[in-house]
Fold this sequence. Notes:
- With about 325 residues, the chain is an all-alpha fold.
- The chain folds into two domains: about 15-90, no CATH class; about 95-305, Orthogonal Bundle (MetI-like fold), CATH 1.10.3720.
- It has helices spanning about 1-30, 35-40, 45-55, 60-75, 90-125, 125-140, 145-160, 170-205, 210-215, 220-230, 235-255, 265-270, 275-305, 305-314.
- The longest helix has about 35 residues, at about 90-125.
- The chain is globular.
- It starts with a helix and ends with a helix.
Amino acid sequence: MARYLVRRAVMLVVTLVVSSFVVFSGASLAPGNPLSALAGGRSLPPETIAVLEERYRLGDPFLVRYFAWVGDALHGNLGMSIALRQDVSSLIAARAGTTAELVLYATVIMIVVGVGLGLIAALRPGKVDSAVVVLTAVVVAVPPFVAAIVLIVFLSVGLGWFPAFGGGSGVLGTIHHLTLPAIALAAAATASVARITRTTVKDQLSREHVQTAISRGLPYGTVVRRHALRNALVPIVTLTGITTASMIALAAVVERAFSLNGLGAYLVEATLSKDLAVVQGICLVLVTTFVVVNTLVDVLAAALDPRINLGAGQ
Length: 314
């Protein structure tokens, strides 16, 4: 296990280096004059242009600018927003909480509802199983922005149960305001988790050792919990982790739909205003979070099933 963890740590570092290079290259090599992008399309006096050229090292070679940017990022310095003239790290920190709360809320919904529906379908064959299969087949095809519109129309504007915009304040106020965004973000992922849970649990229930345990008179609930669900955890955990990481990027659509002050919405705003330093900083944070979450999922899956660790070492 120790060798596996070291190998995963090395792969994590390599992936982060490659990701940071892609983020910096994508923003730096985008069509157009970098100085125009930094200026946001506005006409600037010569002294301001000179300051920008010095601050962003526009006269230096590409690799020199990249290593300088990475070095500053490792010290928590992501540059200065040209639009707001504020520290990018502070701007990101002020919005990261909303995105983290939204993704965490959506993840809880995905695990509780998705695993619950999958178990019910696996343990109740017939009409209940068919209903869950049909329901999840429909929901899994609904993208977050469509789910957001439907929820706003029916549950916010129509019934008035939940607010349609804003993040709220306090614990209960935040939960109230984030309920619809979290449902919109988690809807398709919840259906996917329900379907994989149903399939894997049904597969485990048909295994010989499980049928033997049932024939020996062990309580059915104990057999399901100890033999079927435990062995089905690896694919469920893997899908849940990967989906959670992908929701970090999808949160941008939901945040825009519900006017939430999160990282995703700010990334769209910064892109439209051509605030290069903010775009680079947010992309680096999102990619780093995505890579770290995926690595943690792989380590957790290896801990649940040692065969993954052994297979990787062969």
